[in-house]
Amino acid sequence: MENITIDKNQEQKTQPGKEFNMNPEPVTIRDSYKGSDKLKNKVVLLTGGDSGIGKSIAVHFAREGALVAIIYLNEEKDALQTKNEIENEGGQCLLLQGDVKNEQFCKEAIDKTISNFGSLNCVINNAAMQFPTEHIEDIKIENLHTTFETNIYPYFYIVKAAMKHLKAGDTIINTTSVTAYRGSEHLIDYASTKGAIVSFTRSLSKSLAEKGIRVNAVAPGPIWTPLIPATFDGEKLENFGKDVPLGRAGQPAEVAPAYVYLASEDSSYMTGQVLHVNGGEVIGG
Questions:
Q1: Is the peptide bond before 24 cis (omega within 30 degrees of 0)?
Q2: Where are the stretches annotated Disordered (predicted)?
Q3: Is the whole-model pTM more than 0.85?
Q4: Over the stretch 126-136, which tens digit does the pLDDT of each residue have?
Q5: Active-site residue, selected from the candidate residues 153, 157, 181, 190
Q6: Edge-to-edge, what's the strand order for the sheet holding 93-97?
Q7: What are phi and psi of 94, to 5 degrees?
Q8: Which domains does the chain have, with CATH numbers?
Q9: CB-based contacts of 167, cutoff 8 Å, min separation 6
Q10: In the annotation, is 157 catalytic?
């Protein structure tokens, strides 16, 4: 992928952000990516699947033959565009609009996926929010609650509801972050939730190993998604991603294949692990 020039005059006022307003728009999938039925007829439920990394995962999974159910908060235009792109891949897409902070909605999302597709083989927990602050004293308690209730609580809600449908050979994939490993002085609460996701992944993998259900995670670095213009100012947008060894922001299309790997038989001897797609930052774990 080539370096991108990010328009610094595109701050968005609400989270998790809208992809159709981004300049440049993220790259969802490379034309050179060839599907090979790695996930043929597998049913996947994906939170935060309307845009960014989630959208890219959904389109890659569709190209690999999966049937996709997408949970999104309120980004109707992005969600419909993602559904259209999945259908252009010859796939099927179920859109589920709602708030993952609500446990009852998460249960209903699982039920609707089963009702629509008849089974469930892969759960991907991906939805997130972040509220940058310069100092811990500046963190608003309301935002602290929203961050934890969006970024980690739904992982429990979704998995608990999915367990009666998952069986040996099925997979759970969680989206953590490079910030869980190196920390982030302006995203203390967000990084804390991402650290919790690492521990959740490791603990759940041990719990479900005897059932043959594998649990892994992906820790993206600076990836160009709607969450970025929705949370950072113009100066940070202009320099976003330039501090990693590869010297640029990553594209969702560079992250999503890691999820394909973790959902497919290619990773059959992997559980409790985290894949680091971060532009070259060497970190522990």
A1: yes
A2: 1-24
A3: yes
A4: 999 999 999 99
A5: 190
A6: 93-97, 67-72, 43-47, 122-125, 171-175, 214-220, 274-277
A7: -110, 120
A8: 36-277 (3.40.50.720)
A9: 211, 212, 213
A10: no
